[in-house]
Amino acid sequence: MKKTAAQLKLIWMMGNRRRPYRHPQNYLVRQCVLAFFLLLGCLWTTAAISDPLRLGEDIPYSVLTDPQGQLSLEQASEQLQQQAPTERSTFSRGYVDDTFWLRFELSETIFAGQPRWLELGPNFVDDIRLYYRPRKSDQPWDLKQTGDLLLGRSDIDYRNPVFVLSPPGNGRSYEAIIRVQSSSTTILRASLWEPTEFLGHASRSTAFWSFYFGLAAISSLLAAILAFVLGGRLLWSVTAFSITYLFVASVQGYLNWLSSNLGVPLQHYLTSILTLTSYIALLWLCVETVNMKQHLPWAYKIMMICCGLTLLLLVLIPLNRYGLAVKIQALFYLPTSITFIISVLYVWHLDNYRLSTLLLGLSPLICITASMFGLFSAFGWIPFKPEIYVIWQYALIVNMLLVMAIAVYRIREKKLEEVEKHQLASELKAERDASFHQRQFMGMVSHEFRTPLAVISGSLENLRYLEQDNSDRTPRYNKIQRATERLVQLTDNCLADARLAANDLYLDPQPANLFDLIGSSAALVQLSDDHQLIMTIEGKPANEVHAPECTVIVDAALIRIALSNVIDNAVKYSTGGAIHIDCSQKDGRPTVSIFDKGSGINEQDAKQIFDRYRRGTQSKRGAGLGLYVARQIARAHEGDLQLQSSSPKGSCFIFFF
After folding, report:
1. At 467, which helix (H) or strand (E)?
2. Per-residue pLDDT tens for 5-47?
3. pTM score
4. What is the Cα–Cα distance from 408 to 414, expressed in whole angstroms?
């Protein structure tokens, strides 16, 4: 039916509505949830197919152990016929060097006049030989041989070995014998299928594993990209753990199936190598997800040492000692797995069971628990159950979701870090600007103070001269003089600090006599009646040294400020006694040492007295600039100022030029 223009316009408007904004993190989370439920759907459809007849569960069998592997088929058959088929579980013997013979019967009723397909596995078994013939007949045995070393030879083009068995006919049954030998764990799982049921099973299984490995490839690629872009041990461990998917592909027979034309048992050797390396990658992932290096450094070292030792076991594979390598690896893996489980519980408790910590630790915890059960089953310590290996393989899917969750978490963390860095940069710039303006203001104010202070000093000298006979006012003039000199010193320090803090500090170095600088610096300091200034040269009184001279290339104005600051400190922080100034040569460098008789500087104050605006705990006056400015001036001249010693009997500061 034709639509009107109004209807078409309405349809177009509905189809072109503005879609709501999707935050990339929320979108990725929804994709993870969708992938999880799709996977559950695949698992349900795979499990919903009809079960075949299985050896052990449905068909009993008898077992003969051949330690040397030298029995012939006739010898094995003769001995097996004397045993009743009583075995009712999947055949599993662990890592042993023995060869095993299994005998069972397939009745005519099983076939119902139709062929049956026998699926044998697992794929990592080296050599599986199936002998069968009609029961109680003298016919020669039919032989079907497969195994990992034979590239999974099969009658049907499938990833698992599948052989077609025709019905025995004439109301008879088959007697069958299977010879099993493996350098890996010895397990045999045989399933007898109706052809139509097997085709349905194969199509569903292939669809599931295609989805599984597709999702694995995406998660591995995402982990690798994140590791390269963002870095960090956690993402690299997740990337390394991606080799486990290749291990699953080997166990499922995909490598032999896809590389059969090469004629090389690639899957046989890769399965052995990946068994060891997968456990190493899993342990590494485990310790990184809970940040064990930070929380439990001793446990982290143990886990890493075990990973390194396990890696060395790879050399046993080309020596045909894979079974021994796995047994040694189990000795490392079991205690480290238990250590990790305890560590996860401890870290969860330490972090107050935060949701992010719980989720990050949950995936490797599931993987390591499933792998432990898989290891127990492989060694034959617990009965073989296919579900154990299914749990292990499905636990890897949880890891895929973990990768995506980490991606969301890392992207969010990266954005927060960028925002925080931008904010810190803005605050730092504002602080630098404020500090710069503060120094400019202090320098300007200090500079402006110089003129009125000079006027006050000049006026004070005039008053002293005019009123020399008035002794009553002399103490007042002295107080004014000391206050003025104090302001002049503070002004000089502020101006020097402004110059030192400037990026374009300019020094005016000129040759100067160090002894004259010391004398002029000491003259700037107001001594009390209780203090005495003593100057020595190389330990000798200065008045005993004829024409002393020590030429240094310095900015005289700045050095005068530095020396006067330290001398002034010696006067302020000693109640009386001698202030001893010694000028000498040490290691070919001129030095000036200033001693006082004060109460000393405590250890806490000694660490901060050279910091800007820091005063000692005993100081009740001053701006905390004197020693800071003095040291900065010394260092600007490629020298230094240090506290050489301090005790209750006094302190000693030393200048190096």
Report:
1. none
2. 444 343 334 444 433 334 444 444 444 445 554 555 544 444 4
3. 0.59
4. 10
